[in-house]
């Protein structure tokens, strides 16, 4: 079997506490919080690596080490918690390899990566694997609903049960709860699914050009990973070695302390030289300062991208100004066989009225009749209620102004009779417009409780109108400028901090070992 550059190994750390898995979600919260920050940095650094590979064919080594550390950390937390529940040992807070932890992940650093492949492998070539991994790691119960905001209905997401892997881990957890034993077959299968997912994650995040195999390699050992010379199944993984085996028969692991004695018949053999063209092991010192710089810089870059996206959206909105400087919604048709359409009450009150008036500017309501001349007016809520108290009308409870929905409007019918007088004869309107065809009602925002009323001008039944709402939004130009300035500042500082963190991490620390581990052979 050809070696694969990604090695995912784990061992079932029995005995397991029968009930600890019930609270591991709480115990893992500190890791989840840290990982949320680390994955923001992971995403930003992967984008940087994308362009580095595209222009140079190389994955920057400090970024590779950081991203590998994030994947290791994620794998350890998943193994401890509900990705496998394979150990009760609390995961270490480290980006390093942590070789003594029951779950390990190693990825060979690629000397060169394809410049062309980087453009398509993470989205196009990985699609078949995304489908498989989606089956393994996610699943949801969904229902089709016709009462969602989209009048055509839609999918309602109701439950995520973790896919096949989550289901098997739940079954294993229940068995552990009652028997104290983790079924070995379930463990092997869960590890195979996690191994597949991690291989795809490494490939999709550009850390290797080796296409993940369509094969479920079950079990704690990684049969597709590179074996050490003379390594048997179940032997100590490569990353657990710290140096040569002394002549006395003891082998040293990464970290303090020695391992148990080997039988006297075993001794060490000098390690083979590095393969031609391979890179010697390098270990970058991710100090607390370097990590803090990367995290803060990534958060600033992430925030800058967010403000940039909002700024672009605001600029597009600003470019859509129509006559008179109004920015308007799409047209929505509303109608009723009764005598009036009335909006729900909207309240304008508090200390923010002045700010709202400055931000929104002048409000315009455009109504276009489909037959009879229309009347549209804005009135104090209590005055509108008094006028329509005994009149049959519909209260509009939802008006989406969504293009292409075919009338996304919902109503509540209020029974009654015909109005005693026409709407134009009333004196309480704060703003009004009436007549055939298109009518424009403009209004400056004022504090109070208000309602919008649309009727036929002669107060007859069967009202229908095409409605648009617009506003001048006088502060939008300044908002766009401010957002773009904030974006530039955030990106500049953010990328500066990321570069600083990478430079700090590029200081090479003393290697954990000077060469490959020795080969342990039997001498007698």
TrEMBL record:
InterPro entries: DUF4389 (IPR025498). Residues 231-268 have a biased composition (Low complexity). Residues 221-282 are annotated as: Disordered. The chain crosses the membrane at residues 32-55, 122-141, 161-179, 290-317, 478-502. It comes from the Bacteria. Pfam families: DUF4389 (PF14333). The keyword Cell inner membrane does not apply. Keywords: Membrane, Transmembrane, Transmembrane helix. This is DUF4389 domain-containing protein. It comes from Planobispora takensis.
